[in-house]
Amino acid sequence: MRILLTNDDGIYAPGLLALAQALRPLGEVFVVAPERPRSASGHSITLHKPLRIEEMRLPDGQRAWATSGTPADCVTLGLDVVMEGRADLLFSGINAGSNLGWDLTYSGTVAAAIEGAILGLPSVAVSVVENGSDRDFEPAARFSRRLAEAIRDNGMERWTLLNVNVPALPQERIRGVTVTHQGRRQYVDRIDRRVDPWGRAYYWLRGSLKEETPDEGSDVHAILEDRISVTPVHLDMTAYSLIAPMREWKLEG
Amino acid sequence: MRILLTNDDGIYAPGLLALAQALRPLGEVFVVAPERPRSASGHSITLHKPLRIEEMRLPDGQRAWATSGTPADCVTLGLDVVMEGRADLLFSGINAGSNLGWDLTYSGTVAAAIEGAILGLPSVAVSVVENGSDRDFEPAARFSRRLAEAIRDNGMERWTLLNVNVPALPQERIRGVTVTHQGRRQYVDRIDRRVDPWGRAYYWLRGSLKEETPDEGSDVHAILEDRISVTPVHLDMTAYSLIAPMREWKLEG
Fold first, then answer.
1. How confident is residue A193, by pLDDT bands cut at 50, 70 and 90?
2. Cβ within 8 Å, pair A204-B239
3. Percent over 90 (pLDDT), chain A
4. Nearest to A41 among B44, B114, B177 (CB)
5. In sequence order, what are the residues at sequence separation of 6 or more whose Cβ sits closer than 8 angstroms to the Cβ of residue A98?
6. What does the pLDDT look like over A54-81, one tens digit per residue?
7. A143-162: b (≥16 Cβ within 10 Å) or e
């Protein structure tokens, strides 16, 4: 199996190394990741400047490639340049921080998996929910390997991806795995206004999670219950239930 | 009606001005847009550096605000800072170039409308399909006004947006309006490899559309038929049909 690995925390992120080490027993792993952190980069791609790829070494001495692009760029460069068009599976992560509910479209980690799905690869995004300073990637790495085996054995529908979130807990405190739907997530207090030394205003984006009771069966709910969440995701964002009512709007003429 | 306007082509783009002028008869229009072009920025947001907002004037002398952020950042800054949390409607565009099928998640224009939907505003992304040098925004601007009136009269379901694509044709050659679903779009020849004056490789992302017969009823199909496409979009990307089969994967334990 030829596996493409990327992330949005950058080539030196410990979550990427943990994932590479977990998947190497399953086949040939090609790590192609951004040269610097690209969190919250969404599904951005680089069209207005050229991209570079540098071969380098991960901290464990294994070969990898750093690119000047976004996570989605890394998928195209990884598949078409580094892997010469031949890949069987894509993993993105392990992200330090959750990608739940509506955060999905902001996430560079998930965007890389969306890009993989568009390019026809079975694709998985993996994130660990932050919990203070606890960033133990081991349970997420172990589950990633299990999931890669399950995809190899069961196949995945074309043009879909899996979004995985793992509680930031030791293995023995994780209570199981739930196949979930994408939940809802809203933020409040989104702006932090400050004044610079010259008296001019500037703004930080921030935001606290709005207190809400999460949907039963959602990704957010699974994490609250200390379970691993696996959400199957497709590329179609159409709100089908609105098509017929909108035809009554008489937009013609 | 208080209307927030943004785009991804930047504050000086002619499509933004055309949209502002079309919507001003319906209420108070607040233009808050990126200070420079941010195409293909996806749903990226700026978390790692602070943002600036500058008040300025559009080419027609009307007040506007340029920000250092992405299209999605402009929506948060526009709503929370410029409009003090009170807005009734968001429009993003008019983009010079289509946003059809899977291009939806790459698009900064659509990302701004996704951000608006997350923040609870009825939100619309409007694009004109490019056709050589023809960039006449007038039919798209006219349709935007009609659509804003229809939203005012019919309401819009919370947490949804509309993705509008208008053929790059004179008004009299546009054959009508279709409420569509999101189609599929794939690219081939995605990489253009070149060598710099020092002998090192670099890469442009490019891509030609793969020849495919578009789905009947899709956005891509409507545009091929010289019709305006309006796609209702929601934030839930779950592939619901895969939840039950995936439960058979026995990922536990």
1. very high
2. no
3. 84
4. B44
5. A127, A128, A129, A130, A165, A223
6. 999 999 999 999 999 999 999 999 999 9
7. bbbbbbebbeeeebeebbbb
In contact, A19 and A94? CB cutoff 8 Å: yes
Q: Searching chain B, which residue's CA lies closest to the CA of residue A73?
A: B205
CA distance A15 to B218: 39
CB B66 within 8 A of CB B53: yes
Do A201 and B106 make contact, defined as CB atoms within 8 angstroms? no
Domain residues of chain B, as ranges? 2-183+215-246
Residue A72: its chain B contacts at CB < 8 A? 42, 106
Q: Chain A interface, mutation test: which of B84, B196, B203, most A Cβ atoms within 10 Å?
A: B203
Asked if the model's pLDDT at residue A131 lies above 80, the reply is: no
Contacts of A177 in chain B (CB under 8 A): 251-252
- Percent of chain B residues topping a pLDDT of 70: 98
B239, B225 contact by CB (below 8 A): no
Instruction: Average the pLDDT over each of A134-138, A147-151, B133-137 and give the range with the smallest value.
Output: B133-137
pLDDT exceeds 90 at position B188: no
- Our CA-based measurement puts residue B28 at a distance from the nearest CA of chain A, in whole angstroms, of 23
pLDDT of residue A134: 52
CA distance B35 to B150: 31
Q: What are A13-29's pLDDT values in tens digits? A: 999 999 999 999 999 99
Amino acid present at B124? V
The span from the first CA to the last CA of chain B, in angstroms, equals 55
Burial class (CB in 10 A: 0-12, 13-18, 19+), A73: buried
Q: Which of B40, B45, B233 sits opposite A239 (nearest CB)?
A: B233
pLDDT tier at A94 (50, 70, 90 boundaries)?
very high
How many angstroms separate the CA atoms of A216 and B29, rounded?
A: 40
What is the fold of A2-183+215-246?
Answer: Stationary-phase Survival Protein Sure Homolog; Chain: A, (3.40.1210)
- A210: nearest CA partner in chain B: B119
Q: Does the distance separating the beta carbons of B191 and A77 come in below 8 Å?
A: yes
Q: Of A238, A243, A248, which to mutate for an interface test with B (greatest number of B Cβ within 10 Å)? A: A238
In order of A90, A113, B223, the CA distances from B117 in angstroms are 30, 23, 25
The owner of tokens 């004056």 is B197
What's the rounded Cα separation, in Å, for the pair A180 and A167?
A: 14
Interchain pair A247, B157: CB under 8 A: no
Instruction: Determine the distance in angstroms separating the CA of A234 from the nearest CA of chain B, rounded to an integer.
Output: 5
B191–A81 C-beta distance less than 8 A? yes
Rounded to an integer, the average pLDDT of A68-96 is 96
